[in-house]
Amino acid sequence: MAKHTVHDGDLLELEQAIYARWLSFGVHVGFSALVVSFLVYLTRLLPPGVRPEDLPGYWGLPVAQYVKATGAPTGWSWLRRLGEGDLLNFVGFAILASTTLLCYLRMLPVFLGTRQRVLATICIAEIVVLVAAASGMVFPHP
Amino acid sequence: MRLLTRAAAAAAALAPAFAHAAATAPSLPWWGWPILLFVTTFLMGIVAVVGGIGGGVLFVPIVGGFFPFHLDFVRSAGLLLALCGSLASGPGLLRSGLANLRLAMPLALTGSVGGIAGALIGLALPTRVVQVALGTTVLLIALLMWWTRHSRQESAHEADRWAIALGLYGRYHDPAVGHDVHWKVHRTGWGLVTFFGIGMVGGLFGLGAGWANVPTLTLLMGIPLKLALGTSGLAISIINTSAAWVYMNNGALLPILHVPSILGVMLGARVGVRMLKRISSATAHRIVIAALVVAGLRALTQGLGF
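^ Those are the sequences you sent over. The predicted structure of the assembly is below.
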């Protein structure tokens, strides 16, 4: 406890400011992408993979059956189909869901540079968990 | 004051009512659903803020119980709307010092692992089993909120060994009292285990986690309420990310459900913040508990086939 000094407080403030800046950037980009892509979807500027008027026939199905019936993408395969209005919405969600990972990647050199080994280890462990979840490789999808 | 209280109570009552109207509408065109969803989630956003909980805990049982979308999509939307809300509030909380990154990181790590496990289990279980479990869990949450409504917090007198090793102590400035508040953590090991469980329940049901994070941080770990509220939001933004990816990678993303819900809850939350100053916490607590009981019973009866 004696190690807790004013210097630690300044360092924490700096860490929080960096994390907040990256978080704020990711949130703004993600929300903007989400709103724009949803407007594109509703106005049909791009043809949707599944037409909205057909959706009531599918949205009550469990996700595995929905994917089978509509050919909806799993994993990152939506990246190859960004010309479809409904799948364009995935961009905004992907950015928002990647923001935390980006923040952690930014914080890692900060923790390593200030020799905060415990926090750096936690940071690396969280990055591994998030990458595993996002990649879909460790936890297979249909 | 009375008018606002009544408005919040009406919002709580109207959210399931709107949803019920949606469920019984015989031939609603496809575009009617996102509009109804937006109105319902807007009301939910008001109630969630006034009641001091995340939107996800109300969203999943109400939309899952009264709307035609499959629970897989609803749980995914619940996680993502809780994620969006916590991401949006994160920068402000961090800059003000009311969320603590060092405190959130170890707890969010065990929560993230639990979230992935919960999401995988949730997607593998039959829908009816998930509905029964969801209904039971939501009713238990209501019970927990009722029991802990008068709980007195015991601040940590001494940080334990884990807390010292992880650097879980410090101070923050509380503008309401005008001075710095020093804090420490005890029962850190139990806190880490509990966050794993909270993450798992969140991933399984898409509930978000504020309802459990805050009591764990305050009652179990001895953290001051304001810091607990802020840090809980930051932890949710990390924990829900991992579980949300599992749902997204499985294809459980319906823009027509997800986007209006997120926009509705977030706009409702803004209105709720304005009402927050004028409504007593006891009233807000009762409103949320009532909404949870209605939604929990609905999920339970659906799962049991009544």
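Chain A has four helices and no strands. Chain A has one domain: 6-135.

Shout if you want it in another format.
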